[in-house]
Amino acid sequence: MVSAASALLLARFQFAFTVGIHIVFPAFSIGLAAYLAVLEGLWLKTDKQVYLDLYRYWIKIFSVVFGMGVVSGLVMSYEFGTNWSVFSQKAGPITGVLLSYEVMTAFFLEAGFLGVMLFGMNKVGRGLHFAATCCVSVGTLISMTWILASNSWMQTPAGYSIDPATGRFMPESWLAIIFNPSFPYRLVHMGMAAFLSVAFIIGGTAAWHMMRDKRKGQPISQPVKVMFSMAMWMATIVAPLQILAGDAHGLNTLKHQPVKIAALEGDWETESRAPEILFGIPNMKTEHTDYAIKLPFAGSLILTHSLDGKVPGMKDFPADQRPPSPIIFFTFRIMIALGMLMAATGFLSLYMRWRGRLFTSPLLHRLALVMAPSGFLALLCGWVTTEVGRQPWTVYGLLRTADSVSPIMLPSMAISMTAFVVVYVIVFGSGIGILLRMLSRQPEEGEHDLSEQGTASVLGKRSHPETVLSSPDLGAR
Amino acid sequence: MSGAAYWLPVIWTVILAAAILIYVILDGFDLGIGMLFAVERDRGRRDVMVNTVAPVWDGNETWMILGGATLYGVFPGAYSTQLPALYLPILLMVLALIFRGVAFEFRIMTRDSGRSALWDLAFFGGSAIAAFCQMNGSIANIGRFSAIDGQTLDMQELQSAGLIAPDLCYSRGAIGSALSHILLWNAVVENEQAVSIFEDDAILSSNFQEESTRIIESLENEWDIILWGYNYDVNLVFDLLPGVTYCVANFNQTLMRLGVERYRSRPVNASPFKLFKALGICGYAISPKGARRLLDLCLPLQNAEYWYRWTNETLRDTSLDHVMCHHYEKIDAFCCFPSLCISRNENAKSTIINS
């Protein structure tokens, strides 16, 4: 029993670890692909060199990020089977099919046009290349749509029947499955989160270059200015919208998963005119939130939009159906705080823009630099909140996590967990190091193309004359 | 089973096979390029090699993701049994593919920092290990063994080898089948590793993997043979309450044959009992110790009749399971009850009776 319980725990840690690292890269790709499409569109429309420079600068980042997303995603598509075989057997007829749709409609589109996008700038026409960029961007969005349909279905299952003989979830209505009650809210919330995360990375990069230029006494280059301005517009407009979307998502969760709301709020008793607990430490054993600092009426106001609305408490639900409140209580609050800070950054930038100090305000630049990883941090906290909040279920209310795991023994699980941690630290640690190094180089005016860098030696143009000489067919040119 | 219910699995099998074939052809090229890194030292030429696959490797790998996702969505039963069974090969393969995948970008991006050689190594190692796991992953746990054809056997040779006695009255099919099992027992002894052996017509319960693992664990190495299933046309005798009473169980084979589809889709909660008498060996696990004991006890196969005291019946030895059955009481033999696999046991189709 001890061994089975630890194997389950390790399987859960492993999933949290691998998916937590994975999710950053697709989110990065979603936001960056859209940004690249916008940049190339602006370049085609205005023919201004600065957009092309920025495109060429960010596409190098994109190629690294996309590669890391693909390989970490490959792990996920097999991990369902290796570690969660009972889940995949029972829910496979629904989640597996959604995943297949994702592969067929999104991955092939992305993978097919990625080559053209990365290496085809000088080989195909401008219009065709723009189309390839758009296809990749649309592919990332389609991919997000399917995977969120699958995830939302696990949160708020709909359109299924349970086969009495096997206990399998059988699809009854695909429309009901895909457009399950929480799907639209999650899709909007996640999409905006991806855009915001990337906007803050771009803004932070630009701020860092501006601060460095200022220290060196150099003028700020045009590409840096343009990308900072674009990123701050994004923060100004999308961050407040994201708060509204998050609020709507919260109301939806209250309707379908009230115990999740109770747990992330640290509320134990069901009450109207409920206070909002700003800080506290929920204790699952004593069924009490210790050291609570409360704001009267705010809980009801936020969750029900009325002062005397009824807010659920965890004691209304059996103890074995409550998610671990101490985790999601904090991740939820970190997410909210970061969201508010992002909106504040947006407003500050709007003020500075109005006063004409967008490119000179040290305060704004410092804030933008510090906030660079905030989008991804908030995104991860949000995911922890919603996924841990789904516990103890994999398919909400129907299939328990403890009943979903593979019959894998503790040693195998421990070996794979260790291997994943070691490999991920090496690979993704190096990857993030490489990304930071790439970002620390300023976008140049007349930025060179990715394909020139990669194919340099093939064409014998740049750094390897010895290759040209040693290769007879190239040397003959 | 007509129309869509019959054709859908066939169509999807073809699609799945096509996806795997396309993956093997396309990414096989990429992995080959990676492995050739070991014999090409020149950096410029290495760049040429990488650049031939850099724009397409991602698309090629998508076929493999399609294979995984299709298996997951269309054959969740196969997906959820095969992947845990192939746990470590698959783990190694995805880790290798991670290194291979990121090396495309990393080896170029780290060129000026001197770590590029490491990512070149990652590209080679990742490619080689991934290819190795893909080759071996499929044969890691399940081997398929063609039965020995009784028609082609030389009886004289078998006699002089001490496998059969001259008076043996098995049919040729029964001899072939018996020798197939005996050959596998020898392999078990040689490899010192327990295996499960199934005849072609064995039908497993939906949770066979979990249940069989659990039962083997619960017996803690103190077993010679565990019958996952047995024939339903004869009685089964097992030690229901040790020291209190045994149990003689009867089945209805006709009903069982009608219910095969239902059985296949349903989980079975079985317990192991000390076995006294059972005929039919459609599926069983055998330990090295058990294989050694059975080889000693059963060979040479000879003409015999066995009396069973629990049911007071005498049966003529016409196939290997009779002589095994005769010895079950003496060795650590167990049966699963209810059975975790069934066999239609259709005599008309069986070569054992006919020839």
What would you say this structure looks like, in words?
The complex is a heterodimer of chains A (477) and B (355). Chain A has helices at residues 2-46, 49-83, 85-119, 126-155, 174-178, 183-216, 222-256, 258-265, 298-304, 325-354, 362-370, 374-388, 410-439, 450-454, 456-459, 465-470, 472-475; strands at 160-162, 169-171, 271-272, 276-283, 288-295, 310-311, 393-395, 399-400. Chain A is mostly helical. In chain A, the strands form four sheets. In chain A, strands 1-2 form a two-stranded antiparallel ribbon. Chain A has a two-stranded antiparallel sheet with strand order 3-6. In chain A, a hairpin with a 6-residue loop joins strand 1 and strand 2. In chain A, helix 8 (258-265) packs across helix 10 (325-354). Chain A is globular, with a radius of gyration of 25 Å. Residues 453-477 of chain A have low confidence and may be disordered. Chain B is an alpha+beta fold. Chain B has a seven-stranded mixed beta sheet. Chain B has a two-stranded antiparallel sheet with strand order 2-11. Chain B has a two-stranded antiparallel sheet with strand order 8-9. In chain B, helix 1 (4-36) packs antiparallel against helix 3 and helix 3 crosses helix 4. The two termini of chain B are 32 Å apart. The interface between A and B is large, with 76 and 61 residues.
